[in-house]
Specification:
single chain; Rossmann fold; two-stranded antiparallel sheet; 36% helix; 11 strands; 4 helices; seven-stranded mixed β-sheet; alpha/beta
Length: 213
């Protein structure tokens, strides 16, 4: 390799690394901002927004029997437990994540009472529960730290949902992915890297947002 190309490669490597660090810093800053907004939200406000989100999600689900992936919410997230109960009552197949040593997998839930304490102190299905077949997924409901109106999602930084979404879309491109967001979790722009996955729609207290190309 000539000296010229060595210099070109060296410059590209430095600038690429700097850009990656900048995006990482932007994500860290956005997580901090969203956390500060969440701290200002009262319990009553969170409950009201959560009820609106549950209603809106139910109103927009496709007709017929559905296989739905969802999650048990953390205290800082919208409380979608009433939505999960309603989905089970309507006879839909509901799958929730079970965390293993290095990743998570979705297993079927018959009732929320059967859930057991998991890795992050969140209730999760027992290991004996039916394992999800990704080709059968109709709708996946995803948590996140922040979203923008283009469908960009900011997670907690471990990339778990991004890897799962990549696999889901490879095996089941017709599955719909909806982000669940309280009002304060919607921001103007979410910094994105090449591995970050987007959502097909956002369910918020005020509206269902369909990103435009």
């Amino acid at each position: 390799m000539t000296r010229y190309w060595l210099l070109v490669f060296s410059y590209w490597f430095r600038t690429s690394k700097k850009a990656a660090m900048n995006i990482h810093d932007e994500k860290t800053l956005l997580r901090t901002r969203i956390s500060e907004r969440a701290a200002r939200l009262s319990g009553a406000e969170r409950d009201a927004e959560s009820r609106s989100i549950c209603r809106r999600a139910l109103q927009n689900l496709p007709e017929g029997h559905l296989t739905i992936c969802a999650y048990m919410p953390m205290p800082s997230e919208a409380d979608i437990r009433p939505l999960l109960e309603e989905l089970l009552q309507k006879g839909h197949s509901l799958f929730l994540p079970r965390f293993t040593r290095v990743h998570f997998e979705f297993r079927r839930v018959q009732t929320l009472e059967e859930l057991i304490p998991g890795k992050f102190k969140l209730p999760e299905p027992p290991v004996s529960a039916e394992l999800l077949i990704t080709t059968e997924v109709s709708v996946a409901l995803l948590p996140g730290i922040a979203f923008d109106r283009s469908g960009h999602r900011l997670g907690r930084g471990n990339g778990g949902y991004d890897r799962w979404l990549q696999d889901l879309r490879k095996n089941n491109p017709t599955a719909k992915v909806w982000g669940i967001a309280l009002d304060h979790q919607i921001t103007d722009s979410v910094p994105m890297e090449s591995h970050d996955q987007t959502v097909d729609a956002l369910i918020t207290p005020r509206e269902m947002i369909i990103p435009t190309a």
